Amino acid sequence: MKHFARVTTLAAALLSASLITGTAHAQLAPAAQSAAAPATAQAEARKANIVIIGTGGTIAGAGASVTNTAAYQSAVVPVDKIIASVPEISKVANVKGEQIFQIGSESFNNERLLKLAKRVSELLKQPDVDGIVITHGTDTIEETAYFLNLTLKSDKPVVVVGSMRPGTALGADGALNLYDAVLVASNPASKGKGTLAVLNDEIHTGRDVTKSNTFKTETFRSPFGPLGYVVEGRTLFYRLPARPHTLQTQWDIDKIDKLPEVAVLYAYGNANPAAVDAAVKSGAKAIIYAATGNGSVGDYMVESLKAARAKGVQIVRASRTGSGVVVRNAEQPDDKYDWIVTDDQLPQKARILMALALTQTNDAKALQQVFWKY
Ligand code: ASP
C-alpha cells in the first residue's frame, strides 16, 4: 500500500507537470479558446458527471515490490483511493466513486453480474449522471462488457476499465487507463456506441473485446480491430459496432432477475463425454461446446451431446480457436440434430448471449437467429 501511494504520486506528479493540462480533453478545447468567459469557468460548466464503480481486479491491486508486475494481490485498494491517485481526472470530469465489490473478476458469477448491471442501470436513469466507468479485473471484463452491452437501456456512455499491472508496479498501466476511461465516458461522441472497454490506449466494443495474453499490457484485442484510440487526452473513434446493442436489443436488465445455467465445455483430444452428462445433471439449460476448428465434434462426443439435446438441453457449437465463424451444417448436421452455431462468438461470450436468450425462448431456431443477430 505504501508503494502504491509512492508510485502513483510520482506518476501523478510527472503527468501533471509535463503531459496533461486542463485542455487535455478535446471537449475542453473550445472553452479554452473562448473570449466570452474565463476558460476555467466554461471548462467547469462542460464537465461531465461520471460515477466510477469499483469492483476490484488488478487495477485495485498492490504488490510487495515495484518489480511485482504479475505477482501481487488483486482487489485491495478502494475505488476512492484509486481515483485520488489520478488527480488529473478531476480536471476533465466530476467523478464520484462507488464500491460495489472488491473481488478478482474470476469470482464474478451471475448474481454479481446482475447486481452490477442493475446498479449501472439505476445510475444511468439519474439526470445528473452523464456516464459510468467500471473498474474491473481484466480476466472476465469482456463478459461483463458484453452483458452490459446487451442489457442496458441507455445511450449514455458506459466504459469498463482494468489494468494488467497493480498500481505499485513499475510501468503500472491503471492510472492512464482510468484517466482514458473517464475521458471516453465524458465525451458525447461515446454516446450510443454501447458498452466500451478502454485499456492500453484503445477503445473496444464490449461485444468483441477479449483478453489474449496472460501478462502483457497489450492483451486486449477485437477480431476486427478497436473502435478507436485515446491519445494525449483525445478520444478518437474510427468505426462503429455493427451489431445491435443497448437500446436496440430485446433485453432490459430491469426485467431480468435470474439467469439460466449455461455450461461451457472445452474440446480436446480424448475429451470425456461424462462432462456433458455432468453438465446436464447439474441443471445446465444449454451447453456451449468450445469445439476444435470450425466447431468440429469428435465422434465419441456426438452421441452424448445428442442425448443431452434429447433431454431438452440446447447445444451450441463454438470454436476454441479464438476467432472465426462456426458455419452451420458444415462440420456437423445442425439442422438434423437441432443444434445451434455461435456465428463468431467466443465460447465465454456465447455463454452470456445464450443465458440472456434463454430468458425469452427455448426454441432452437429462434436461438439460432439470436446468435446471427447479435
Ligand atoms: N485476476 C485479475 C482479475 O481479473 C486479473 C486482472 O485484473 O488483471 O481480477
In short:
The protein has 374 residues and is α/β, with parallel strands linked by helices. 33% of the residues lie in helices and 18% in strands.
Provide an overview of this structure.
The protein is an alpha/beta fold and 374 residues long. It folds into 2 domains: 202 residues, 3-Layer(aba) Sandwich (Rossmann fold), CATH 3.40.50.1170; 114 residues, Rossmann fold. The chain has 13 helices and 14 strands. The strands form 3 sheets. It has an 8-stranded mixed β-sheet. Strands 11-12-13-14 form a 4-stranded parallel β-sheet, with helices on both faces. Strand 5 and strand 6 form a beta hairpin. Helix 9 runs parallel beside helix 10. It is globular. The site of aspartic acid has 11 residues, from loops. Aspartic acid binds next to loops.
CATH fold description of the largest domain: Rossmann fold
How many beta strands in the DSSP annotation?
A: 14
How many domains make up the coordinates? Answer: 2
- Over all CA atoms, what is the radius of gyration? 22 Å
- Which CATH top level class of the largest domain fits? Alpha Beta
Low-pLDDT stretches: 1-43
CATH H level, superfamily name of the largest domain: L-asparaginase, N-terminal domain
